[in-house]
Structures are given as C-alpha cells and as structure tokens.
Amino acid sequence: MTDVGAEVPWRRLDGRMLVVAPMQHVVRLLPLLVILLFTGRGDPVRLWITLGITVALVVLGLVRWKTTRYRITPDRVELHSGWVRRQRRSVPRDRLRTVDVTSTLLHRVFGLGVLHVRGASHASADHHGLKLDAVSVAEAGRLRRELLQSSPAPGGVGGRTPGPDQAADAPGSVDSPGAPGAPGEVLSGDGRRGDHRHSRVLSVLRWPWIRFAPLTTSALAGTGVLIAAVWNVVSELGVRPRDLPFAADFEQRVLGAAIWLTVGFLALALLVVAVLGALLMFTERWWGYRLTRDDEGTLRVHRGLLTRRSLSVAGNRLRGVLVSEPLLLRAGRGAQTRVLATGLGRGSQGGALQPPASRSETHALAALVAGEPVERSTLAPLRRHPRRALWRRLTRAVGPALVVCAAGWTVASTVAGWSWLGPLTTALAALAVPLALDRYRNLGHLLTDRHLVTRWGGLHRRTVVLERSGVIGWRLRQSVFQRRVGLVTVEAVTAAGDGGYRVTDVTAADGVALAAAVTPSVLADLRRSAPPGAEEAPGDLAAQCAGRGPQERLDHR
Prior knowledge:
The chain is α+β, with helices and mostly antiparallel strands. 40% of the residues lie in helices and 22% in strands. Keywords: Membrane, Transmembrane, Transmembrane helix.
C-alpha cells in the first residue's frame, strides 16, 4: 500500500525569516548590548563581544531556517527542526483543537505571521502542538482554513449548526447592524484565496470598555513587570536616581514633610502609574478587536496593536462559555467572557472572547455564543444550595480570621510601636463575615435541556455554562467536615477549559442525582458495582452512589 504522507512534499519557512529571526534576538538582547557598549568606556573587547553576539545570532537564524521543515498530510501535521538537537513533532489532524495566528510588529513589517497549531490538552507534550515561526500572512491564512476545514462537520455553537442568519436572530444579541464592522454585519471571505465563506460580526471594540482596564489584575501585574524591567536596565547602566539634577531637592522635601503626606503621595504616584500602564496595555492588547462567526460555526477573535493575534476555534470544539468576574472588576460592574473548547486551555490566549466589558454586554455575548437566552444561561435563576453551605463558609472565613485577630492583639499588647496591629486585624475579621455571605449568595446551579449552569466564588466569581454532551465524567468528593453535614462537591469532568467545573456543597442526594441526570450510564455502573450492605447515613456519599440512602426530590429544569 502506498504511503500517502510520503507523497506530500516538505516545505520550508518563509525566506524572510533570515532577516526577522536575527532581528528578534537582537531586540531581546538589546538591554545587554546597550550595557556592553555604553559601559565599555572605549574598551575594544566590549565592542568585539557585541559584534560577535550579533554575528552568532545571524548564523543561528540561518541554521534554524535551513533545518526547519513542515508538511501537512491527510492525517497529520509534521514539523522537523534542529541541527544539534533534532526534534520531530507530529500532531494528528483529528486531534487538532485550535489554530492561532500571531504577528509581532517585526513580523508585520515583513508580512509574516506565526501559526500555532494545538492538539488535545491531554496529549503528551510532544504531541500537544507545534509552531510555524514564521510563514507569510497569506500562507498562514490558507493553512488555518485548511486545518479547520479538515475537522468533521461542526455541530455549531451549542451543538447546532448555525445558519447564515442565526447570529442576528440569536437571543441576547449584543448590538444591531450598523456601521461597517458593527455587530451583525456579514463579512465575505477572500475568494481569490479559496475562502468563500461568510462571517457575521458578533462583537467589536467599544472604547468605553477601557474604563475596566485598571480593574483587572493582569494589566496591573503587567505594568509592574514592565516597571521592574526598566528599573533593572537603568541599574545595570549604572544610573543612580540620586545623581539626577532634581533628586536632592526632592529628597529634602520628602524628608521634611509629614509621614502620612509622604506615604499618601507615593501611593497616589504608584496608583497613577498603574492606571496609565493598565490603559496602555489594554490598548495594545485589544486594538482592532473583532469577534466573528462564520457559516460553519467557527469563532475567530482578532486583536492587537503592536502584536496582532488571531484565535480560531472550530464550532464542533465548543463546549460552553465562562463569565469571569474578579472582585475589582465586579465592583465596577464589569466582567469578561471566555470560551470553553476542547483542548483550549490557559495557554491559548486564555480563550478570551471579549475584553473586560460591562456586565450586561458580557452576559449578552455569552448567551449568544451558548445559543441560549440570557435568562437560561449565565443570568438564569439558579437553584440555591442548602443553608448548611452557608455555615461552612462562615466557619471557614471567620475561624482563621479570629485566630489572626487574637495574634494581632497579642503582638500589639506586648511589642512597642505595634499598637495599630490589633485594630487592623479586628477590621479584617469583621470583613470575613460579608465575604462568607457573598460566597454563599454566589453558589448555585441549574440543569437545562442542553446545559449545566454553575456559579461559585467570592473574590473571583465564575459562572459556567457547560454543554451536557461535553461532560465525560464526574469527580465526587466529600471531606470529613462535609460528611458531618451531609454535603458533597460534584465536579463535571470535560475535555474543555480547565478540565472540570464544580458544583460545590450540595446535598449528597442532589449531587448524585445531578450526575445521574447528565450521564446516567456512569452512575448506573457505579450502583451496579456497589456491594450490598447495611443502610448508610442519608448524607453519606457512598450510600447515595450505591442507591441505598434516601433520595431527596431533585427538581432541575
């Protein structure tokens, strides 16, 4: 039998990488090169070291281009690379999950893009995915279409194949058709490149969303990393802040001011820098943002100013949506929508479908992607959990807080100058009560005809809408403390997202009934394998799985 893969020719990366690859390394090593040049004080050795590093980078780029080959066979995507350390990477096409295209500013100048092909997340490291860095923009688009079209016929968003007008008629539409690029507009593919599909715009960037940027921890953390990097470069160059012309006068003013005024000024300055950094990072990440869905159900996210990013998720890989609400973002009445797709985890741009936006727009987009009305998805009235779950949250929040409070008052009464620690820990203990109440209010779940909806979290509230067909198993856990009050944590296992989403602190009967309603065969096998025995306590998980304990009525819609 003839090997079909052997007939497919190998291809090389774009020749322009001979220029781009060395320039990329030079940019990364720019701080080191600057330090070598400006601290050498005319030393020719430093100059020769800098020149040698540059030549080595050019040679490495040439070797990398010469030794890297790839091809796409009917069954696999293969990549061979390396000279000293050879690598042979291969991803089966039937295990492909996402295809991303990113283009840094340097890549865009030369008309190139980096193609990321990712397989199933549970595959081994060598088969999880591969990266083609880099190919032409036209080649990246053609490869992305070829790889995504090779999948089986998509079931569409929410398990249904969307028609050309489905997005406009779907419940919870974000906006109405309007100006070019507005939600609802139909875009046509490039027929000259073989793309005759139509895409409907689901969401575009709205600049009022930038007000949520300072409320996200990722933007603040990124600003801190950037400030630390600049500080390290300045330190390596030998520049001392005290040597600046205005440093002496500023130091005298700070030392002469009251301590509270100094602390307040520094805190305000840090806050201003963090806010400005968050606004700049939001602009770079989400510039030109657009979310589309084509007539085959594939979702595509385009965004980025300096680095253009494109995420494509085939419609038959979608398993649900997640609405993320960290505490600061929730306080500003904002949220963010993420997609749950098989093989799509944190490494593939986090599955973000939208920048942080207003709560109403976020839930509307989540319902649109899930194919359900808002009141049947992320804003559905969920089934409340037992009052015993409230007491568990109160004891888990107040107990440690009281221990810290006692330790704080002990230190305040015995150590001079620490009298402020007692009132501070008392305030923290008082905040534990509303935090526990909020965590209980956020608990809930609902089972619809097509989805499992679950919500949990206080400092970071999450609402998940997971397709029932995407649940491949269950993890039922019951700690010693949960068993005493008859509660259990049920986690729906899926190949999408984080791999599992939990329903926390429900009664043992409700937890087992929920699992049995979604996947009856799993619980039936468990009950058949359970040995007969004496009657167990009603809240015991083993008894409920075996079907021997009394079952409460479970009314799921």
